[in-house]
């Protein structure tokens, strides 16, 4: 089940990211759903899953992007590993720490990604902090939302169903 | 078995290395070579350098230490051989010098109009006051007292008795008791050569102040003494001054180098006193 969840999450994240990228051609892409998926899986399942998810998702994203395969993979592998280790060591089960993790992971990922591109491509390292900050916030919100949905969604649905059932019997 | 779930760091390291290799395989350096190739070549070149260094050190150690166990004995043998060869070389040098001297002696013997016999100097005189040497020819070879002894450089001296069967003593011309009739070759000024305890070790006496004698004149045997063959070189005038009396003071440098006298010729003509005509002549 876990493997299926991981695969579905990565494939879903890639598909959504590709779709959103297609919709925002020419404009700033203030979201990285693949990274959100990696951080989510690392927090939810630990460092091993985080590392594997980061590697697979990053390599797949690189392959789809048509650039140098491995740069995104390395960045996301590091993120998956670090987030997974931190998640295993500290209590990150509430919203704010998770939001901080998503934001920090996005920053670190962008710095690493741009740095590796600059290193390999032989160009200057010019981080764009404002765009990265916007992306980090969006990623954080989406990541936290996913956690809320996954963790509280079934319970909420169940409660709603129960509420509907009780109200119906009383009504009818 | 490695449990990868418990070894997250290992898994992380493996994946990172794999991706670094993957990126390196795609990226080219400024020279157009792929990074993976360049890095691989660089790494392996260092490995090769290290391997070569180890190999060199091993060979060096083997060649300089282990393989040199027998070198000490070999060195000793070579030292001995070098010493032997040096001795032989000196012998060869001596032989060559001796051959040259003998050749000169042979030339003299050929030129000499008098019968001669070659002899080797076998000993000196332990008494420094007497300048004599011993030769390896004696009465068995026809050597008799008062026979003249010559060398390529000129007159050496005369045989003094007694003469042994295979040895004889030679009084050198530079001995203070030696004397010989002499004349200067240029001006034919006659006189007598005597040995002296000075430098040069010969003096020419009884030469009139009126005669023409200059430094550099050759002095030869006049033959009036009946011992030394006429015309043979005795030496060269080094200094010729007017004397206080009737005679000049003349010093003569001998033609023979007595310090390296090794082979000589003995003139086998018995000595005879000069006749009155010869003396006058």
Notes on the protein architecture:
The complex is a heterodimer of chains A (172) and B (281). Chain A is mostly helical and 172 residues long. Chain A has six helices and no strands. Chain A starts with a helix and ends with a helix. The model of chain A has no long low-confidence stretch (mean pLDDT 83). Chain B has 281 residues and is α+β, with helices and mostly antiparallel strands. Chain B has a six-stranded antiparallel β-barrel with strand order 1-2-5-4-3-12. In chain B, β7 and β8 form a beta hairpin. Chain B starts with 7 loop residues before the first helix and ends with a helix. The relative contact order of chain B is 0.11. The model of chain B has no long low-confidence stretch (mean pLDDT 83). Chain A binds chain B through residues 47-48, 51-52, 55, 59, 68-71, 73-74, 77-78, 81, 84-85, 116, 120, 122, and chain B through 4-5, 8, 11-12, 15-16, 19-20, 22-23, 26-27, 30, 35.
Biggest sheet descriptor of chain A: none
Distance between the termini of chain A: 40 Å
Tally of individual helices of chain B: 4
For the termini of chain B, the CA-CA separation is 131 Å
The biggest sheet of chain B amounts to: 6 strands, antiparallel, barrel
Mean pLDDT of chain A: 83
- Sheet with the most strands: spatial strand order of chain B: 1-2-5-4-3-12
Strand content of chain A: under 5%
Shape of chain A: elongated
What are the segments of chain B in which pLDDT stays under 50 over at least 5 consecutive residues?
none
The residue fraction in helices of chain A comes out at over 70%
Helix-strand topology string of chain B: HHHEEEEEEEEEEEEH
Largest interface: A-B, 20 and 15 residues
Can you describe this structure in just a few lines?
The complex is a heterodimer of chains A (172) and B (281). Chain A is mainly α.
Keywords:
heterodimer, A: 172 residues, mainly alpha, 6 helices, elongated, B: 281 residues, alpha+beta, 6-stranded antiparallel β-barrel, 4 helices, 24% strand
């Amino acid at each position: 089940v876990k493997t299926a969840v991981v695969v579905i999450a990565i494939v879903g994240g890639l598909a959504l990211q590709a779709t959103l990228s297609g919709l925002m051609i020419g404009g700033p892409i203030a979201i990285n759903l693949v990274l959100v998926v990696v951080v989510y899986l690392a927090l939810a399942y630990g460092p091993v899953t985080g590392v594997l998810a980061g590697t697979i998702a990053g390599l797949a994203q690189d392959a789809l992007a048509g650039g140098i395969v491995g740069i995104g993979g390395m960045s996301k592998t590091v993120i998956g590993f670090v987030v997974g280790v931190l998640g295993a060591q500290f209590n990150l089960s509430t919203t704010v720490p998770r939001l901080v993790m998503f934001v920090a992971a996005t920053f670190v990922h962008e710095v690493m990604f741009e740095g590796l591109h600059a290193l390999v491509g032989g160009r200057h390292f010019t981080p764009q902090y404002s765009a990265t900050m916007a992306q980090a916030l969006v990623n954080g919100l989406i990541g936290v939302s996913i956690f809320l949905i996954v963790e509280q969604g079934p319970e909420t649905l169940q409660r709603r169903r129960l509420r509907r059932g009780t109200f119906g019997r009383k009504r009818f | 078995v490695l449990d990868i779930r418990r070894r997250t760091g290992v898994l992380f390291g493996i994946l990172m290395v794999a991706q670094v290799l993957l990126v390196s395989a795609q990226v080219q350096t400024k020279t157009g070579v792929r990074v993976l190739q360049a890095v691989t070549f660089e790494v392996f070149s260092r490995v090769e350098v290290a391997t070569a260094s180890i190999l060199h050190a091993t060979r060096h150690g083997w060649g300089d230490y282990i393989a040199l166990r027998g070198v000490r004995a070999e060195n000793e043998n070579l030292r001995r051989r070098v010493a032997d060869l040096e001795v032989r070389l000196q012998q060869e040098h001596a032989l060559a010098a001796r051959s040259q001297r003998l050749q000169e002696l042979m030339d003299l013997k050929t030129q000499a109009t008098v019968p001669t016999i070659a002899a080797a100097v076998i000993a000196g005189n332990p008494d420094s006051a007497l300048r004599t040497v011993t030769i390896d020819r004696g009465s068995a070879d026809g050597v008799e007292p008062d026979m003249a002894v010559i060398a390529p450089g000129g007159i050496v001296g005369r045989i003094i008795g007694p003469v042994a069967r295979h040895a004889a003593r030679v009084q050198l011309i530079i001995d203070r008791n030696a004397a010989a009739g002499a004349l200067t070759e240029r001006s034919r000024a006659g006189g007598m050569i005597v040995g002296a305890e000075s430098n040069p070790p010969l003096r020419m006496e009884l030469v009139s102040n009126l005669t023409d004698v200059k430094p550099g004149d050759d002095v030869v045997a006049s033959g009036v003494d009946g011992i030394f063959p006429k015309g043979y070189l005795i030496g060269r005038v080094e200094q010729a001054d007017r004397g206080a009396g009737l005679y000049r003071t003349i010093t003569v440098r001998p033609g023979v180098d007595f310090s390296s006298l090794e082979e000589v010729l003995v003139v086998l003509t018995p000595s005879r006193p000069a006749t009155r005509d010869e003396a006058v002549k």
